[in-house]
Amino acid sequence: MNFYKHYIGDYGRSTGDLSLSEHGAYRLMLDHFYGIGKPLPAEKKSLYRLLRGESAGDRAAIDAVCIRFWRSLPPDLDTIYEWLKLDSQEAQSRYKKVAAEWDGSGLINIRALLEILSAAAIAEKNREIAIDREEKRRLKRAGETCKQYDTGARPS
Hints:
Elements: H1 8-15, H2 20-36, H3 44-50, H4 56-69, E1 71-72, H5 77-84, H6 89-99, E2 107-108, H7 110-151
């Protein structure tokens, strides 16, 4: 995703007690998660590097945000389905498509993951609509070409 909605009120209610460093860490984590659609590294050294956590204060902020807003990706899908409240087979299959490229470890944010799944569903639906529309256009053009040849008219 290269766009996600930022609900100022929701964010403020959930993060009103964070320090400036913690806000920065959290926003960088969200931006990266939304941007690549994959879990953040669970290994602290990699996570600190990704988030530019160079000082002890930066690292403490990253740790605090991780504990509060991020979960380790569980090994089994049923736990994810429970966390995300994915009851239908359709919703579960959507999650499987999104998670198919993941390596099986890392940190996820539940709310962001729900939005990523929603965006994936919309993108898939839009893709299907576009394919159907282009197929209809192709068939219409082919039919018009056939009519022109049948009537002896020159194709334009």
